[in-house]
Design goal:
The protein is an alpha/beta fold. The chain folds into two domains: 2-257 and 479-508, 3-Layer(aba) Sandwich (Aldehyde Dehydrogenase, Chain A, domain 1); 261-467, Aldehyde Dehydrogenase, Chain A, domain 2. 37% of the residues lie in helices and 21% in strands. It is built from 16 helices and 23 strands. It has helices at 41-57, 61-77, 79-90, 94-116, 160-174, 187-200, 216-219, 234-241, 244-248, 274-288, 308-320, 340-354, 387-391, 408-416, 431-441, 502-508, and strands at 2-3, 5-8, 11-14, 20-23, 30-34, 124-125, 130-131, 138-146, 151-154, 178-181, 208-211, 227-231, 252-256, 261-265, 298-304, 357-361, 377-381, 398-404, 421-427, 445-451, 470-471, 482-483, 493-501. The strands form six sheets. Strands 16-17-18-15-14-19-20 form a seven-stranded mixed β-sheet, sandwiched between helices. The radius of gyration is 24 Å and the shape is globular. The N and C termini lie far apart (61 Å). The mean pLDDT is 95. The structure holds NADP nicotinamide-adenine-dinucleotide phosphate. NADP nicotinamide-adenine-dinucleotide phosphate binds next to helix 8. NADP nicotinamide-adenine-dinucleotide phosphate is lined by residues 154-159, 181, 183-184, 215-216, 231-233, 236, 239-240, 256-258, 295, 393, 395, 422.
Length: 513
């Protein structure tokens, strides 16, 4: 059994306090434990402020980009070992594990490439300079500079590699030291990655600290130059956002929370066409990839009434063909959910949805004597209006078909009932329908993904978060924003308007104005 340690203040520490046990979710075998206490939060912060931050900011953007490139390569070199850990502690199939790990190394590599082209200093001009006075002598230039604080990253259990990697990539490139907290149920993978990061010597001492235990006490110590990036449930997100110290000191807080993501099938789509096939493939993938434990997974399947039969038939065929079992078996396509608590919550959630739906396939009944397995479950809403359909995230392989009238406005209203989401996907070749839908739902969703005949075979599905596009969403989704190219660095930097003599302001930032 592995006892996970923290990497803090330049060395590895055993935890203290009541241990939380880590399991193999396929067999329930005990694999490790996390003891959440024993870390001096103030000392961890000081180490980052005094050692990690200055060392990082002594590097230029291109030098930090080189560091990210090294991290991406290192992760890739250890891919097979990490896939095995993801299968054992995360219940991931090989495909699921690659999705997480390649997402991490791909995002690090993306920011390495972006950073290589940035200026050789620590300052990013924001747009062009502007004349502020009567003449061009009095000039203004907005700039981004790294904040001399820490980036506290709190990650969810479902993407131990990607969650850590995508946040690290942005903060480190911006020049801000990272303190990263792993979600407990799958922390073995994050721990191994942390060991590799520290062992590689690529990141300056103090710029990367790893805590598998609790960081609640640290929230009370953060100051105005620090930032918190949280990924997890909306309930925990609200708790963190409401932390008195964070509110009082205006500490930046970015919340990536949950989302009842809709997928909309357009009324023009024919069941034997490419757009329909793309829709069915993507919905079935979202329901079963990582056993449905993806914040971007489709939860509500909005289908014109007349196409409900065809959609259900096609999805049932796909889901029935998905072999569920121990992810270490090569022919298994869906593993268990991550923990006994998740299994309990998923089953209870399915039952709540069943109260307002008919069960088309699957259901919450136990599947096996051992392991946290649950069936792929497709439900059909009895009434599109039932609040629970639009409010309850069942974080497992479960989605509900919600028939709609075929009018774009009906689909818009149903999508927006989610109260703010990470991604909405729509499948149609009718430009008018798409325009009406996109304009109606865009304010309520961080990302709108469009599938059509021409994108069949070309598009990466809506469940994937790509570093070139922003990730996050309004309202219930947390109101946050990450990634999106250089935008991903902004939470860690201060945008300052510099005003003065054009010759000085322009020269200071390498812009002549
Ligand atoms: P969670 O229970 O909210 O926990 C998320 C993280 O917060 C974990 O590291 C957890 O640590 C920590 N935490 C819990 N209570 C805390 C507190 N009082 N103060 C500081 N940290 C605290 O979520 P989860 O079960 O890990 O993840 C599943 C949820 O995350 C789903 O709802 C999913 O939709 C959402 N999610 C969202 C995104 C996104 O990008 N928007 C991505 C992935 C997942 P412990 O594990 O030690 O409790």
């Amino acid at each position: 059994m592995t006892s996970l340690q923290s990497y803090a203040c330049g060395r590895w520490h055993a935890g203290s306090g009541d241990a939380k046990t880590l399991h193999d979710p396929a067999t329930e075998a005990v694999l490790g434990q996390v003891c959440p206490g024993g870390i001096d939060a103030a000392a961890v912060l000081q180490h980052a402020y005094r050692v990690g931050g200055p060392a990082l900011r002594a590097m230029t953007f291109p030098q930090r980009a080189e560091m990210l490139k090294g991290l991406a390569t290192m992760l890739h070199e250890h891919r097979d070992e990490l896939i095995e850990i993801a299968a054992r502690n995360g219940g991931n199939t090989r495909g699921d594990a690659k999705f997480d790990l390649d997402g991490a190394s791909g995002t690090l590599a993306f920011y390495a490439q972006l950073g290589a082209a940035l200026p050789a200093g620590n300052c990013l001009p924001d747009g062009d300079g502007v004349q502020l006075g009567r003449t061009a002598r009095f000039w203004g230039q907005h700039v981004f500079v790294p904040r001399p604080g820490v980036a506290l990253h709190i990650n969810a259990f479902n993407f131990p590699a990607w969650g850590m990697g995508e946040k690290m990539a942005c903060a480190l490139l911006a020049g801000v030291p990272v303190i990263t907290k792993a979600g407990t149920p799958s922390a073995l993978l994050a721990y191994r990655i942390a060991q590799l990061v520290v062992g590689s010597g690529l990141v300056p001492e103090g710029a990367f600290q790893f805590l598998p235990g609790s960081v609640s006490a640290m929230l009370d110590l953060l100051g105005p130059m620090d930032s918190v990036a949280f990924t997890g449930s909306s309930v925990t997100g609200a708790l963190i956002r409401g932390n008195k110290n964070l509110v009082a000191r205006n500490v930046r807080v970015n919340i990536e929370a949950d989302s009842i993501n809709p997928a909309v099938l357009g009324p023009d789509v024919e069941p034997d066409g490419d757009t329909f096939a793309q829709f069915v493939t993507n919905v079935a993938t979202d329901m079963t990839q990582k056993a449905g434990q993806k914040c971007t997974a489709v939860r509500r399947i909005l289908v014109p009434q007349e196409l409900v039969g065809a959609v259900e038939e096609a999805l049932v065929e796909r889901l029935r063909a998905t072999k569920v079992g121990n992810p270490l078996d090569n022919d298994v396509r869906m593993g268990p959910v991550a923990s006994a608590e998740q299994l309990r919550d998923v089953r209870a959630g399915m039952q709540r949805l069943q109260a307002v739906s008919d069960t088309v396939l699957g259901g919450p009944e136990p599947m096996a004597d051992k392991g946290y397995f649950v069936r792929p479950t497709l439900l059909r809403a009895k009434h599109a209006d039932a609040a629970v359909l639009h409010e309850l995230e069942v974080f497992g392989p479960c989605a509900t078909v919600i028939p709609y009238s075929g009018l774009g406005t009906d689909a818009v209203a149903l999508c927006n009932r989610g109260g703010g989401g990470l991604v909405a996907s729509a499948y149609s070749d009718d430009k008018q329908f798409i325009e009406q839908l996109v304009l109606g739902i865009a304010p309520w969703h961080g990302r709108v993904w469009l599938g059509s005949e021409k994108t069949q075979g070309q598009a990466i599905g809506p469940g994937a978060v790509l570093p070139a596009s922003i990730h996050g969403g309004p309202g219930r989704a947390g109101g946050g924003e990450e990634l999106g190219g250089l935008r991903g660095l902004h939470p860690y930097m201060q945008r300052t308007a510099t005003q003065g003599d054009r010759a000085i302001v322009g020269k200071l930032f390498g812009r002549e104005g």
